[in-house]
Each structure stands twice: as structure tokens, then as C-alpha cells.
Write a structure and sequence with these properties.
This protein is mostly beta strands. Helix content is 8%, strand content 54%. β2 and β3 form a beta hairpin.
Length: 284
């Protein structure tokens, strides 16, 4: 029986953390390096053994890109030899961790822009009758300094025009047309009589030349009605891209109230009495 576990930091905010994946830990989740062409910079990451036995951890590096819309990872062998790990493997005792140095060397004359790597740590945790491999990774966002271009545009957007629940969903699909990554902070607001609700801005990273589909929600108001929604994003460079649309909100309690009113009006509606002429016609 084969069991394979894989951990990779999702594309999102820029915070760094330590993660545990059933026996193998790696930190930080992400690293951001800015290096001048013609120079070298050193950094490191930490791998830990959280099992109760000695394990051998294999270390490797890949470059990564992302798929349009879903931003699923795509890995490939490095197209250059800029990144060099100091070790290709390390033996760790139970509870032991090890700092893994690496160096990034950028050739002179390299064009400015972003390059993206994944540093992998994997270990064989097989036991009798069960073959198990665990793998964890840290992402490296490498920027070659120079004229960095952070441009992009909104390819398409959509919003829920008729809403019934506690949230109104919307989607934006921005594309990064520059040469380096940047963050967008998605937000939405609802405007109307006696109401102005908004959503907490969420940060998302954009890789050059890929469209990212980002969905979020705006809290629904209390009262039914037609509201104006504005939604979109701001970039970390200060650019704002917003769209607007009207949303019809019908809460469930309002639908239930209408049904009760209709039922009550039907039940207590006065019946029209027949005239004597109508009674005579009925008897004949």
C-alpha cells in the first residue's frame, strides 16, 4: 500500500510560518529575495523531523509557474543554475531540525524581473506493509533588481445579482502583465438606504502572465431591496480597479412573511353573498 503526502504553501499573503506535515516540518513557508544582476545572495530554510525515528530527508529545487484561473502549481526543472543548495540530503534524529543554506547567483546582464522556485524536502516513512512518502516545500520569490514593471488589468468580473442568503458573492479575474509579482487586495461594498456593508480586504499574489480567478463575498443587509454593489481590488502599488452593479436582495424571512400574508388574506377574504335573482336561477 502506498501513502504519499505533499504539503505546499498556498499562494496568498506574504506571512511566513512553520508547517507540520505528519512528521516533516519546514519553515518558512515563503521567502522573498531581491538580488542585483552580477551578485550573489545567501539564505536558508529549516527542516525538522517530528517523528520518533531517524529519517533521511532528500532536498531538491524546482521552478514553478501557475495555471490560469485556478493558480494550480506547475513544476519544472530549473532553466538555469542560479540556485544551489548546500546539501542534497540530511539525516535527522527524532525531534532534530537542521538549517539548510543555499545561495542564489545572478549573472551580470540578467534582465530585471521575477523568478519563482520551490525548495522541496521529502522523506521515506515506510513501515512494514505500508509504503509512505512525505514531502513539504517552501516557496522562493526571487526578484532580479532593476526596472520592475507592475502592470495589469481586470479581464472580467461578475457578481450575484439576486441574493437570498447571508452573503453576496462576486468574482474578479485580474492578470499581471508586468515582469514581477505583486499583491492585490480584493474588497467589496454594498450601498443603499440605511446600509453600507463592506468585506475585509483579502490579499492575493499575482504571478506575471497568468490570470487569477478570485472569489469573495459581501455581507448581506438586513432589509430587502435593491442595493448598489462596488467590488474590485487595490494593488500594493496604489492602483485601484473597481466595478459596480445592482443587486436585488430578498431575505428568507421576507419570503416567509409574504407567504403568510397571502395565506391570511386568502383565508379571511370575505365571500360575496348571492343575490335573490342568483338563488332563483340556481334553483331553476
Amino acid at each position: 500500500m502506498l501513502s504519499f503526502l505533499f504539503l505546499l504553501a498556498p499562494l496568498g499573503t506574504a506571512s511566513a510560518a512553520t508547517t507540520l506535515n505528519r512528521g516533516l516540518s519546514i519553515s518558512p513557508l515563503r521567502q522573498y529575495l531581491n538580488v542585483n544582476a552580477g551578485s550573489q545572495q545567501k539564505s536558508s530554510f529549516t527542516v525538522g523531523n517530528m517523528t520518533d525515528r531517524t529519517i533521511t530527508v532528500a532536498l531538491s529545487a524546482k521552478q514553478f509557474s501557475v495555471a490560469d484561473y485556478t493558480y494550480d502549481y506547475r513544476f519544472s526543472d530549473p532553466k538555469n543554475d542560479w540556485l544551489k543548495l548546500s546539501l542534497t540530503g540530511v539525516s535527522l534524529k527524532p525531534g532534530e531540525s537542521r538549517n539548510i543554506p543555499y545561495a542564489v547567483s545572478i549573472p551580470a546582464g540578467t534582465a530585471p524581473g521575477g523568478h519563482y522556485y520551490t525548495l522541496f524536502a521529502s522523506a521515506d516513512l515506510s513501515t512494514s506493509g505500508l509504503k509512505s512518502t512525505v514531502q513539504a516545500a517552501t516557496l522562493l520569490y526571487l526578484t532580479v533588481n532593476g526596472k520592475l514593471v507592475k502592470t495589469g488589468h481586470l479581464q472580467r468580473s461578475s457578481i450575484q445579482h439576486i441574493a437570498f442568503g447571508k452573503e453576496i458573492s462576486y468574482t474578479v479575474e485580474p492578470i499581471n502583465t508586468g515582469n514581477v509579482y505583486y499583491f492585490v487586495y480584493v474588497t467589496g461594498e454594498l450601498h443603499g438606504l440605511f446600509v453600507k456593508s463592506d468585506s475585509t480586504p483579502a490579499g492575493h499574489l499575482l504571478i506575471p502572465n497568468a490570470v487569477r480567478r478570485i472569489s469573495d463575498t459581501i455581507p448581506s443587509p438586513v432589509l430587502p431591496g435593491v442595493y448598489k454593489a462596488t467590488y474590485g481590488y487595490k494593488t500594493d502599488t496604489g492602483t485601484t480597479v473597481m466595478k459596480s452593479s445592482y443587486v436585488l436582495f430578498i431575505p428568507p424571512w421576507f419570503i416567509a412573511l409574504l407567504l403568510v400574508i397571502i395565506l391570511l388574506s386568502t383565508k379571511f377574504r370575505p365571500h360575496k353573498k348571492k343575490s335573490p335573482e342568483q338563488d332563483t336561477e340556481t334553483k331553476s
